[in-house]
Amino acid sequence: MHQDFYNLEEKYWWFLGRYKIVFSVLNGSIYIMKILLIQPSQENVYGVVVKPSYVPLGLLYIGACLEKASHVVDFIDLDIDGFNENKVLGYINETKPDLIGFGSTTVTINNVLKISGLIKNTTDIPIIVGGIHATIAGEELIKNENIDYVVVGEGEETIGELVKALGNGHKLSEIKGIYYEDRSKVVFTGDRALIENLDNIPFPARHLLRHPFDYIPPEALKAPVISIMTSRGCAARCTYCCTKLIFARRMRFRTIRNVVDEIEDAVKNYDIK
Ligand code: B12
Ligand code: SF4
To answer: What's the CA-to-centroid distance between 259 and ligand 2, angstroms?
Structure first.
């Protein structure tokens, strides 16, 4: 049943996208973009391709915010979806996205840079990198000739403003939380304030996953299973941990109602046990 739902949605995806574009143009907002989000391979970490056991929530939150702003979003998780570098390049040439966004950690950044280099060999599609590595090494990353924008920290608000600015030519310098280059000069616009009300963030766009049930956490006793994030931040200060650099040490919580709504949504749409 779920497979049917996904096939159906895949089949009508571009139709839905076009419909949204027409609607938005009629609405007067003409910066609708086709955006491809990519979760890089973690092959570097383990020496072989290992299927991740948890969904990439960060990119799914970004996807949800972009869809809320009427953009057309596509998503590939290289390891789960079985895309190698050549296949992803072929897919990009075929589908021609307006923008590409990568998630990153320090161990996956080399894969991001390799694919970005291949993309830039044949296209001039702008490339954005977000995630933990982008947050801790943004200045170094933006100096890479194949990366156009780096998003630092929580990305939900930043990505909306950045895509809007790229669409309508507004000033990048006014968007908090990004690195870009202005005539070869690195510009950092400064840290963005944390999102105070987590309930305002849309639920992760799980429908973008091509194989939502292939992520199987080792602790799961029943399938299908999903992971849900109920709070952000951690008060501890373990020296090796980067969590504080994205979500800070002050804890923020979603309301119980909001979390239960997400669980109910998952039970209804994904038959979660
Ligand atoms: C769950 C988790 C895992 C899971 C799943 C990872 C996954 N598929 O995403 C598993 C168990 C598989 C895992 C594995 C590993 N993990 Co881990 N993991 C986490 C954890 C606890 C939560 C990640 C998460 O879902 N966060 C929630 C989302 C909402 O946050 P986010 O991903 O940061 O996304 C936000 C922003 O970063 C940004 N953003 C993210 N991507 C993008 C993309 C764009 C285009 C934009 C604009 C913005 C943007 O916007 C998002 C929303 O605000 C973090 C710690 C933490 N609290 O973040 C460690 C963490 C990411 N893991 C870490 C490590 C070290 C590892 C491993 C290397 C461990 C190992 N030795 O095997 C592996 C490598 C995995 C990999 N692919 O890189 C480190 C990474 C440090 C670093 N410098 O890169 C972290 C930060 C913990 C720590 N020790 O500091 N991990
Ligand atoms: S490892 Fe990171 S998230 Fe876990 S308790 Fe320590 S500081 Fe908090």
So the answer is: 22
